Amino acid sequence: MPGDYARIVVASDGEVPPGWTGYAEASAAVREPLPHPGNASDDRLLLYFTSGTTSRPKLVEHTHTTHPVGHLSTMYWLGLQPGDVHLNISSPGWAKHAWSNFFAPWLAEATVLVYNYARFDAAALLGQLRAERVSTFCAPPTVWRMLINADLAEVPGDLREAIGAGEPLNPEVISQVERRWGLTIRDGFGQTETTASIANTPGQPVRAGSMGRPLPGVPAVLVDPATGERVEGSGEGEICLDLSAEPYTLMTGYQGDPERNAQAMEGGYYHTGDVAARDEDGYITYVGRTDDVFKASDYKVSPFELESVLIEHPAVAEAAVVPAPDAVRLAVPKAYVALVEGHEPTADTARSILAHAREHLAPYLRVRRLEFYELPKTISGKIRRVELRQREEGVVDDRPAGEFRDSDFPDLRG
């Protein structure tokens, strides 16, 4: 390679080629630093696309402050310490890749382990956790759900922290890992537009279903979508960041989209589009995207609540619930289900899953329809419910081939 570069070599035989500096002597090879490029803390550093779960991906701008300084919150959530070996499962197209493969481990002086594979294999991943002595492990719910369907066996000896990221983690997954490994998966919340904002941090008691409390330095609040007023104490509202506190974890804006920026920053808050409930101790529980929550027979339905019950069934690997048009109720909950290997998409399987949901859900939340289907996903592994909703639009009397309904089974009617 042409150019006057410092060339450092690790020579196993001790022979250092001409023009190179041996690794052992590299610290003595001092050179004059290059002039500073003059970039400021608020200059652009990175552009990342959002995941596109509910609409087309948007291009987000982050700076030399929001990344990496903002990721002090992410480091705190992950529980990273100097000397840790950190494995994060994510695609480079996902902002979480920057969070956990670069900024947070670098801030913590931890080692980043990258495991490259062409096709996901739960057993191979578990082998890497043990072989590379991973101490902190972060993965999206899709990966955790695949892992619990594999043989978790004994806990990897050096593993100290288990983290879930990308989507809310279903309680059943958390309880299975806790039962087999004795480790509690710590959930958290953030977006491409922010860094980690809300999380269960190391040492904090984890409450079932909760994604924790606002992280230090992050002015996360709940805002009533109807009134725009801040929700105080316990209650439900949209997760927002208070712009008057000048959050250093927040993007500068959507690239080339002033209209969307104005919508996102309306009323003095950054609006995440995610709805959550807060209890009297400040623990925040995810309810759903404002786009995903729907009404059935005039009752508000959170798909996440129904999906968490569905995946407790031994045949269900993953599930996504969307509204299906209904002539009487206007809309009813329909579940798209991906099966665990070894289970067949038969009427008996459908009846068993619908019966399980009926037993564990209130009557107004009952899953009325079910279809076995390969769930559409983003590059980061998030389920694209928008595609499933679009598939249901306008279908009232027409019944898709392969769809099962509770009315098909006499004992499930009503």
UniProtKB/TrEMBL annotation:
Keyword annotations: ATP-binding, Ligase, Nucleotide-binding
GO function term, MF aspect, one: acetate-CoA ligase activity
Pfam families (alphabetical): AMP-binding, AMP-binding_C
Domain AMP-dependent synthetase/ligase: 10-254
Enzyme kind, highest EC tier: ligase
One of the protein's GO biological processes: fatty acid biosynthetic process
EC number: 6.2.1.1
Region (Disordered): 392-414
Residues in AMP-binding enzyme C-terminal domain copies: 305-382
Family to which the UniProt record says this protein belongs: Belongs to the ATP-dependent AMP-binding enzyme family.
Annotated protein name in UniProt: Acetyl-CoA synthetase
The species this protein was found in: Janibacter alkaliphilus
